Amino acid sequence: MDNTLDKIDELDAQIKRAERLENELRISASVSGGKVNDNTPKEMRNYSFQDAMKAAVSGKMEGLVKEMDTKRLEEKTQAKSIKALEYLILS
User: Fold this and answer.
1) Which residues, 6 or more positions from 26, have their beta carbon under 8 angstroms from its beta carbon?
2) In a structure prediction context, what are the per-residue pLDDT tens digits for the chain, which is 91 residues long?
3) Which of 4, 15, 61, 77 could potentially form a cystine with 66 if both were Cys, beta carbons 3.0 to 4.6 Å apart?
4) Are the C-beta atoms of residues 36 and 26 closer than 8 Å to each other?
5) What's the CA gap between 13 and 15, in Å, rounded?
6) Which of 34, 26, 81, 5 minimizes the C-alpha distance to 89?
7) What integer pLDDT is reported at residue 37 of this predicted model?
8) SS3 sequence, 21-84?
9) Is the CB of residue 51 less than 8 Å from the CB of residue 65?
10) d(Cα 66, Cα 59) in Å, to the nearest integer?
11) What's the CA gap between 85 and 91, in Å, rounded?
């Protein structure tokens, strides 16, 4: 019985943390100009950073997670190119 109550308390704490994180993400999105609403594609509303990390670790990325990773790599490459140009110009 005590074990079950402990599990319930643990799950309750996890739910509260998840709700708090979701609220913070919504606030952050609204401040940054991105809005999460009914017009947001379902795939983006259901995006989970934790799931993306698991997919990256396993190497099995697909769908939106794969698209986001591809975009990240493109921007990383562009940033390196810009830094290289800055170095050449300032040297």
Assistant:
1) 36
2) 778 888 888 998 889 888 888 888 877 766 665 555 667 677 777 777 788 888 888 888 888 888 888 888 888 888 888 877 777 787 6
3) 61
4) yes
5) 5
6) 81
7) 61
8) HHHHHHHHHHHHCCCCCCCCCHHHHCCCHHHHHHHHHHCCCCHHHHHHHHHHHHHHHHHHHHHH
9) yes
10) 10
11) 10
Q: Which two tokens stand for residue 15?
A: 């739910």
SS3 1: coil
How open is the CA angle 54-67-45, to the nearest 5 degrees? 75
Cα separation, 81 vs 76, whole angstroms: 9
Q: Give 91's DSSP letter.
A: -
* Distance from C-alpha of 47 to C-alpha of 65, rounded to nearest angstrom: 8
Q: Please write the tens of the pLDDT for every residue from 3-24.
A: 888 888 899 888 988 888 888 8
Instruction: Extract the tokens encoding 21.
Output: 């994180």
The count of other CB atoms within 10 Å of the CB of residue 65 is: 20
